[in-house]
Amino acid sequence: MKKINREIESYLFTGENGEFRAIPFYELSIDEWVIYQNKEPKYLLDFNYRESSFVKQISESMEQGADLEEIINEYGIYLGLNWSTKHNIESKEIPDSQQVEKVELEIIESFEDVANELIFIATDTYNKSDLLNDEELLVKYMIEDANGYYNMEAMVVDRNENIGKLIEFLFEEKIELIENQLSKNISIYDLSSLIGKNIDLNRLENDYQKWIEISSRNNTMDEYGTLLGLISFLERSLDKKQLILRVEKKILYPKTYTIKRIHALINGSGFIDFYLVIKFMKAFGRNLKELKLIFLKKI
C-alpha cells in the first residue's frame, strides 16, 4: 500500500467531557473520502485513482445504487474491522481554533492489501496442487467426519502482520513463518511443528481481550466465535501428521452468496471464497454432496 502525508487542519470541539481536538478533513475534494478504522483515520479513498481495483469495485457497486457508507461498513465487517467514512464528530466546533497537523494515510490499491483468507487444514498427507486448485481443495478436505466436523477451518484477517500475530496468539510461540508461494496470491505455511501446542478454550476466554488489543480487530461475537472454532479444530486435529495454513490474498471483495452463486461454486464455476462457504456449510449443517443435490433441485 502507498502511504501519503498531508497537512490537514484540526479543530477544537467542545462536548460533554470538555474540549478535544479532532480532524474533520474539510480540505478533501468531492472525490476523496477517509476510511476510519475504529474511529481513527486510516485510509484515503480517492475516486480519481482509477488504476485501483479497490476503487473500481466500489464505483461499480455505487453505480448499481449502493451507498458508499454501507459498502465500506460491509467491507469492514467481512474483515473483522469497524470501518466507516463518517468521522462521528458530533460536538460543537470552536471558532478560529484550527491548527495544521501532519496526517499519514494509506491508499488501498487492491482488496488484497487488506484481505487475507486463512484456511487451516489438518491432514496426514497432501499435494500442493490440491491447495492451489479450488475444486480439489473443497473435494479433498471439506469432508465431514463421523462427528459432523470438517478438516478445514477458516478466518479472514486484514493485514499481513496479523497473520503472524494470530499464530503467536494461538500457539504462544513466535516462529518464523516460511512462505511457500503457490501462485501470485496463494501461499502455504507448514505449521506441523505446532500441533498440540495451541492454547485451550479457557485460555482464550482469559486472553481474548489481548488478541483484540494486539490485532486492532473488532470485539464481536463473530470474532470470538471464529477463534473458538479455530482452537476446537486444532484440538480435534492432534492425531493428524500435518497442519497446513493456506493464505489467499483476496483480490476482490466477495459479495454475499445467493443460492445461484453457491450452486455455481459447487459446480466448479464462479468466484470462490472459502471463508464464506465454510460458514455457510456450518450454518446449514450440510456437506458438499448434500448441498449439490439441494441446489440442483431448487434451480
How does this structure look, described?
This protein has 299 residues and is α+β, with helices and mostly antiparallel strands. It has 2 domains: 110 residues, no CATH class; 138 residues. It is built from 10 helices and 12 strands. The protein has a 5-stranded antiparallel β-sheet with strand order 9-8-12-11-10. Strands 1, 2, 6 and 7 form a 4-stranded antiparallel β-sheet that branches. 25% of the residues are buried. The C terminus is likely disordered.
The coarse silhouette is globular
Any idea what the radius of gyration is? 22 Å
Helix content: 25-40%
Low-confidence stretches: 256-272, 283-299
Give the spatial strand order of the biggest sheet. Answer: 9-8-12-11-10
Structural class estimated from helices and strands: alpha+beta
N-C termini distance: 42 Å
Number of strands: 12
Mean of residue pLDDT?
85
Order of helices and strands: EEEEHHEEEEHHEHEEHHEHHH
Number of helices: 10
**Total domain modules:** 2
Strand content: 15-25%
Largest beta-sheet characterization: 5 strands, antiparallel
